[in-house]
Design brief:
Elements lengths: L4 H15 L12 E6 L13 H17 L3 E3 L3 E2 L4 H10 L3 H17 L11 E2 L3 H16 L3 E11 L4 E3 L4 E2 L2 E2 L6 E11 L5 H6 L8 H11 L1 E11 L5 E6 L10 E4 L16 H13 L2 H6 L7 E9 L6 E6 L11 E4 L5 H9 L34 H14 L3 E7 L4 E2 L12 E4 L3 E4 L30 E3 L6 E4 L13 H4 L12 H7 L4 E4 L7 H14 L12 E3 L3 E2 L16 H8 L1 H10 L7 E2 L4 H15 L3 E2 L5 H19 L3 H17 L3 E2 H11 L4 H10 L16 H4 L3 E8 L2 E9 L4 H10 L1 H7 L4 E7 L3 E6 L1
Parallel strand pairs: 1-2, 1-22, 3-4, 12-14, 22-23, 24-25, 26-27, 28-31
Antiparallel strand pairs: 5-6, 5-9, 7-8, 9-17, 10-11, 10-13, 10-16, 12-15, 13-14, 18-19, 18-21, 20-21, 28-29, 30-31
Helix pairs in contact: 1-21, 3-4, 15-16, 16-17, 18-19, 18-20, 20-21
The chain binds one RNA strand of 86 nucleotides through helix 7, strand 11, strand 15, helix 10 and strand 25.
RNA sequence: GCGGACAUGGCGAAAUUGGUAUACGCGUACGAUUCAGAUUCGUAUGGAACUUUUCCGUGCAGGUUCAAGUCCUGUUGUCCGCACCA
């Protein structure tokens, strides 16, 4: 009997839309389960075969939870602000709003064709004013609490996107999106003080269930280091040079200071500095280098001495020179360091190049290189003879007493640069008033104005700057004022979208406290590793802020996070248009059906690892479904046959446990195995079919639903009850026992699982093969693993 | 350079506390069905040899153990993250 999968799939997708078996209920007597996938950016290329890997996996989990009696929230939405839609709009002269709308409907159609059990009533869209009203609302609260500030800082500038980028968006010195080089530029920007939450973002990782590599990556990104802040007086009357160091105990080994090219000591001492020309030249050259170029040059250090001012070592009062060099970064610590060449590799190289002294203050190093280990202090006055850690404590105490420094924790994490010179984003609800300063526009949502000109200008001004929209009256003094023209980055809307799902139609709050308390935390969140130091970190930060102001009741949004691997092209390379190895899910579904597609994506390999697509691999999944279809109409009334009790109970256990561990590939393998065993008998009983249908339905829901219906089971397969297994039935009455001599397999036998170890050994000795070997041999040891093996050790 | 992960047939991959290595699928070969092809079904499929049997096999070299894909030490390779972070 053939099977028209396409027709069946359409039929059940329509039916599910009507009956809505996947609707989540706010407040229910059932236990709640919140399953979340990263909502997609609806790009013009449509759905990629990589997207569904996450959706199908969470769909399987969501479907299983519903069958286990949970009130499941499994929502989807659209992360629709962002550059690609805008670039497409510019190129094709279509408003990004229209492009986005079109893309969303395409995505929606594609996702629906996969039969994912999303609750479509909960759909959200970050570009909807009813949604971004609340994104702006959160920004406003951040502003009120002083966590959103406008400041001139060094920013990453992408010349191609004509836009600033957050630190997290710079990958190997290049733009995350377009791959162009990034230059450092000073600019007034909106900044979110994520660094205020750095410690908590590390600490609370202990309270959540994330993969170890995700935690580690976040910890490394935040980059906590303990040390001291030390203030060096200078020969310029009121100029103090502040440095951060993790090795304050080496202070007697300081032979010079270094400041970053962007350091403000230059501007405030132009009169004292004797070689301004030389310095300005160095500064200009440094600013011309992109961050990528700067890191490519690695350890080749350059610098220039700042003549005219010297620093004074607070430990011994000695005067030392100050250099400017681009191996010191303005963005980390204080943008200045105390250089200890004998005990720091970078300072060592610099000191060699510029013939500076390298006084040794810790014993233990070799000649000709910097010693960075621990040891005993020498040449260090009152620290002499102490070991590194004691010296550290003592010097910090000394500095504190003299008010020249204190212990300090520093983070690599930089504040989040939050403004973008772009059209297609949430307007920042701030009004610039000459009299009142920055004033919140409380009239939300602040609607993104209509325009035909959404191209960024050459000078890097936002397209909004040219619109009459910017003229507004100050809400405080009612005088003439101007609107902020930068927009928020794409990461804004996605930093809280999971909250909106809990109560997506609320227009008086971002979501009611009651709904949030009911659904949160998210029980299981699956997403890509590429978001570990972007969305995942940003959203944890926002959630903590919302916790602090009482909007949410727990400090972490996600109880459990997992990550899927990428789906690669058939050649094992990353799928991309330019490589010509992109697989279009529409074509696959057209040819093999959604169920085969779903099965194959889960069967392809370890869920957490990258896996290459295989056109022939999906064929096997399709065959399996066809076999199943044929079998299901070769049904005979009756219970589970005794011969199948063990295997079926085992399979229930295996499939259930494997789903929880994301081992979808082995869950499917065990279903294939079971079907193969049943098929050998030429028929399937009704009870066997029922169990099999329930187990396979999360993986292949359409065909399961159809067979369920045709076999006259009650209701929907999607609403059936997940079976339990009987542990007693899993244990075999008889086992194959492996018989070994000196650890090598020599024979096998079948034995009752009840019999004792001693009896087993006796039986083994009687085995024909074994007895012929051990005859005339000295048995030194007899080892028995019940119901598994017997091993005789002979000389 | 630092941190993390991984290494198993022709391919994607399985393998509980150390206890039958290669489950399941793909591919391939042969056979059946067919006018033929596609599909489907059946059988076989790590390597080697003197083939009812034996030996060798989980990147490489050692070690622990009655027993190692699994544990330990060293080593090579691949991938990922960070990268002058003071």
């Amino acid at each position: 009997m053939g099977c028209d999968f396409k027709k069946i799939e359409e039929k059940w997708q329509k039916k599910w839309d009507e009956i809505q078996p996947f609707k989540a209920f706010n407040f229910s007597k059932k236990p709640k389960f919140y399953a979340l996938i990263e909502f997609p950016y609806p790009s013009g290329q449509g759905l990629h075969v990589g997207h569904p890997r996450s959706y199908i996996a969470m769909d399987i989990i969501a479907r299983k939870r519903r069958m286990q009696g949970y009130n499941v929230l499994f929502p989807i939405g659209w992360d629709a602000f962002g550059l690609p839609a805008e670039n497409f709009a510019i190129k094709n002269k279509i408003h990004p709003k229209l492009v986005t709308k079109k893309n969303i409907s395409k995505f929606k159609e594609q996702i629906k064709s996969l039969g994912i059990s999303f609750d479509w009533n909960r759909e959200v869209n970050t570009t909807d004013p009813g949604y971004y009203k609340w994104t702006q609302w959160i920004f406003s609260r951040l502003f009120e609490k002083g966590l959103a500030i406008k400041e001139e800082t060094a920013v990453n500038w992408c010349t191609s996107c004509k836009c600033v980028l957050a630190n997290e968006e710079v990958i190997e010195g290049k733009c995350e999106r377009c791959g162009s080089g990034i230059f450092q530029k000073r600019k007034f920007q909106w900044i979110l003080k994520i660094t205020k939450y750095a410690q908590r973002l590390i600490d609370d990782l202990k309270t959540v269930d994330y993969p170890e590599r995700v935690k580690q990556q976040q910890i490394n990104w935040i980059g906590r280091s303990e040390g001291a802040l030390i203030r060096f007086k200078t020969t310029s009357s009121d100029q103090i040079l502040e440095v951060f160091t993790t090795r304050p105990e080496t202070i007697f080994g300081v032979s010079y200071m270094v400041v970053a090219p962007e350091h403000k000591i230059i501007e405030s001492n132009t009169k004292l500095i004797e070689n301004m020309e030389e310095i300005n030249k160095y500064k200009t050259e440094a600013s011309k280098k992109s961050e990528f170029q700067r890191s490519q040059m690695l350890k080749e250090k350059t610098g220039v001495e700042i003549k005219g001012i010297r620093a004074i070592n607070p430990a011994n009062g000695k005067e030392i020179p100050i250099f400017m060099a681009d191996y010191v970064l303005i963005g980390y610590g204080t943008g200045a360091i105390m250089a200890v060449p004998a005990h720091d590799e970078r300072d060592w190289e610099f000191a060699i190049k510029y013939s500076l002294p390298k006084p040794v203050v810790i014993l233990g190093g070799k000649d000709g290189e910097a010693f960075i280990g621990d040891g005993t202090l020498v040449n260090s006055d009152f620290l002499n003879g102490l070991d590194t850690s004691k010296a550290k404590t003592k010097i910090i105490k000394f500095l504190e007493q003299n008010k020249n420094g204190e212990s300090k924790v520093s983070f690599k994490l930089r504040d989040w640069i939050f403004s973008r010179q772009r059209y297609w984003g949430e307007p920042i609800p701030i009004i610039n008033c000459k009299r009142c300063g920055l004033v919140l526009d409380k009239n939300l949502p602040l609607i993104l104005p209509e325009t035909e000109e959404y191209e960024t200008s050459e000078d890097g001004e936002s397209p909004l700057a040219n619109l009459p929209w910017i003229h507004v009256n100050c809400p405080k003094c009612l005088g003439k004022a101007l609107r902020e023209t930068d927009t928020m980055p794409q990461w804004a809307g996605s930093s809280w979208y999971f909250l909106r799902y809990s109560d997506n139609e609320n227009d008086s709050e971002l979501a009611s406290k009651k709904a949030i308390d009911y659904w949160f935390p998210v029980d299981w969140y699956n997403g890509g590793m590429e978001h570990t130091t972007l969305h995942l970190l940003y959203s944890r930060f926002w959630h903590k802020f919302l916790y602090d102001i009482g909007v949410v009741s727990m400090p972490e949004p996600y109880a459990k996070r997992t990550s899927h691997g990428m789906i690669l092209g058939e050649n094992g390379e990353k799928m991309s248009k330019s490589r010509g190895n992109v697989v279009n899910p529409d074509e696959i579904i057209q040819e093999f059906g959604a169920d085969a597609f779903r099965l194959y994506e889960m069967f392809i390999g370890d869920f957490e690892k990258a896996a290459p697509w295989s056109a022939s691999g999906i064929r096997g999944c399709k065959r399996f479904l066809e076999k199943f279809w044929d079998m299901a109409f070769n049904i005979s009334d009756g219970e589970i046959r005794p011969d199948f009790q063990t295997l079926i109970n085992k399979t229930i256990k295996k499939v259930g446990e494997d789903i929880e561990k994301l081992k979808f590939n082995t869950a499917i393998a065990s279903l294939m195995d079971l079907l193969g065993q049943i098929k050998k008998t030429g028929k399937i009983t009704r009870d066997e079919l029922e169990v099999f249908l329930v187990l396979i339905s999360p993986f292949a829901p359409h065909v399961s639903e159809e067979i369920w219906k045709r076999s006259n089971f009650e209701g929907l397969a999607s609403e059936s009850v997940w079976p339990s297994y009987n542990e007693k039935l899993i244990k075999l009455e008889q086992n194959t026992i492996v018989l070994q001599i000196n650890g090598k397999i020599r024979s096998k036998m079948v034995a009752d699982s009840q019999i004792s170890g001693k009896e087993l050994i006796d039986l083994a000795k009687k085995d024909e093969k074994i007895s012929s070997i051990i005859k005339n041999q000295n048995i030194i040891r007899e080892i028995c693993v019940p119901s598994k093996l017997v091993n005789f050790v002979i000389e």
